[in-house]
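On clarity, I found the account of how folds are encoded harder to follow than it need be. What matters is that the chain and its backbone geometry are given together, residue for residue. For the editor and my fellow referees, an illustration may be useful. For illustration, here is how one protein appears when written out as sequence plus structure tokens:

___
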Amino acid sequence: MAKIRIFELARSLNMTNPDLLDRLKEMGIEAKSHLSSLEDDIVEKVRQGVFRTEVEKPEKVEQKRVRSNVIRKRRQPVKSEAEPEAEAPAAQAPEAEEVTAPTAEEAVPEEAADADVSAKAETPTAPETPEEAEISVSEEAPVEEAADQVPPTDEAVDPAEAAPAEEESSPSRKKAKAKKHQAAKIIKFPDAPQRLSNKGVLEVVDDTAPADSPAAPAAATPAGEKDKKPSRKDRKKRGKTESVETEEAVPVKKKGVFKRKEIVEGVALYDRTRGRMRKKGKGGAKVPGGAKTQITTPKAIKRKVRINESISVAELAKRMGVKASEVIARLMGMGVMATLNQQVDFDSAALVAAEFEYEVEKASATEEELLELNVEEDQGNLKKRAPVVTIMGHVDHGKTSLLDVIRQSRITEGEAGGITQHIGAYKVNTANGEVVFLDTPGHEAFTAMRARGARATDIVILVVAADDGIMPQTIEAINHSRAAGVPIVVAVNKIDKEGADPDRVKREASDHGLVPEDWGGDTMFVNVSAKQKLGISDLLDMVLLQAEMLELKANPDKKARGVVIEAKLDPGRGPVATVLIHEGTLSVGETVVCGIHYGKIRAMFDDKGAPLDQAGPATPVELIGLGGVATSGDDLFAVGDEKSAKTVSENRQQKQRTEDLARKDSISLENFFEKMQEKEEKVLNIIIKADVNGSCEAIADSLQKFSSGEVKIHVVHSAPGTIIESDVTLASASNAIVLGFNVRPSPKVRALAAEENVDIRSYDIIYDLIDDIKKALTGMMSSTFEEEVLGRAEVRELFVIPKKGTIAGSYVLDGKIERGRPARLLRDGVIAYNGVIGSLRRHKDDAKEVASGYECGIGIENYNDIKPGDVIECYFLREIKPEL
């Protein structure tokens, strides 16, 4: 059902918001403010109530002449139909020939002060005798804006209160009394000044006529009474009494024209100023309290807040004009624990703003619009591209050697330890077309690298050694490929080696869902030998056949998009990123966004180091020009202008800062005890520096696995690049050790480390790094002890020896009793004492140990309360070294 707000309904009814709210309150309709909504049935009810003609009995207006130039007008309650006829002669003026034109002074609210009111004067025929002179009351002419017309109050004045007022005859006393209740005099010139139409006849303007009633000629009614419909302002101010008096007319230069002065008494003045100028003080008259101060609300067009992707709590509160504590309270109600300077996202800000009746708009284009992510691709622009193939498998199964044969290169010879510890991208020209290869590490520490390779590829070549079979990292590679939905081609390597069994590989692969085609499955198996260069062409044919089945296409004429394979910080060139272009063409000089960084491409190189001006789809390149070291796996987008790139980068950086703050641990009542226990843990602080960003991630992830309940690894800092002085300073401040992987510190840095007593360790092979850290953590852990019972002896007789105490003559029941070992005294199965065996004798000779079946004398250090029948149990604690 459609709804309408109160301020819209008031506008359609030509009413003010307070008037309509009062009207709704009288009708029993609950409404909090003018921004509240009403249902259609309630709106129709309100419209009928406003426009319905209200017929009320006419009120008698009693006019009495106080003196020759003052007329007092009072409203009297209607008692019966016979009373107007009885009191009609009282309204006639006894002396009409001395009447001058007075000005009717009434309390006018602020809304009516500027209303354009024109009085339509009637000129009746002058009576022949003074007794026939009557006061004719003319109705007020209609005005254009009915909402601004406010007549005086309709409440009748009690005769007891009116009597003292009639006794006042002095104009000066009357003025003084009026000034006592007013804050200032308001002088107003009427638009149409009144004139004396005839001698003895006075025209009095009656403001009691409703604003929406048409002007009608004044009829000579008894006592000057006429019909009147109370307006909305009358009902609002019912219960308040204001005396309306006319003061002495002030003549001006023109003859017959009189100037009117208006006295605004205290009650009217209070209503007009909404309580701001209420009369106070010891001698001030008591004035009834007015309406409460209305809280102003901005217009609908001003109740909009324009923000970007996020905004701080303080800034949001400032733009809405509310207290920040109120915004924080609303966020807490939504389950968001935010501080004053914490950033909230667009959706959270919109929900909070709605609580304060504000609307949130995005100040700039969204990231999807700036990067053109939702643009539909025209199928006619797609062209065939080269397949991207990732080589995966267990460590030392021959992945890089196989790639060397395909590329006719010698990558393996330059690798430390003969293992791949980076992810590489290469483009190879074969007889059947181009193929892009991604070489991933096989060590268990490089899980994240293998996952990125599986997501960025079209086909996976799973290398399995024929003599080794399926290994843990092989299974992990299978899972990564399945998660990415990438087809797998199995290359059974080392078939020339002794003990090779390709059928064993097929059986084990079938157990993991890779069923060979010759066994009725859909997985291609190729037997190869990288060392003997056997089966290489067959493997490439299978890969290209699989690529044709996938129908790989891309649009080279659009803005480039790609993914970061690897990133590093080069000392001479700055941040360098290895990027695989997925679609579009990337050119030197273009502005790109990559993760939280952006920049203009200064140079590009292929996998062999040759410079490039452009790079099309399925092309691996090294690019220089980013503002920082990108994170492996970040997407790269070419942007039309630098301003858009900067906007996207700043928004992403702000999101990352917000996430980093959210990840920081905070103390609460729930986790206070846990935090206190963590302080007792032994923490090993580490700073990791490596040649590429992927190695930093791999090392950090591998070391975090060693954290346990007693020892914990805290990575203080991790970044690609060489070890510099700031790393040593940070390590000294945080009591950390510096681990370098494929990087070396300079002599100056080594001297600073020696001065600051900072331990710097450099490694080329990740095995050695992980083993050293594991040993260090093991040494930090406390050993545990396990109790082992040696033997038990029963006490049968007691001997008291001076200077040595009580000696228990005992019989060894089982095991053996050794001197100096811990022992416990058991009495009726309950431990009576824990101590150490101080003396052990057999036949008056000291003995080191006594075996079972023999008698001996046992003395317990510092304990003599031994009784016959007790059992002495001898044991020792075995130390168990901790393991990770």
Observations:
- The first strand starts at residue 3 and ends at 5.
- The chain has a mean pLDDT of 71.
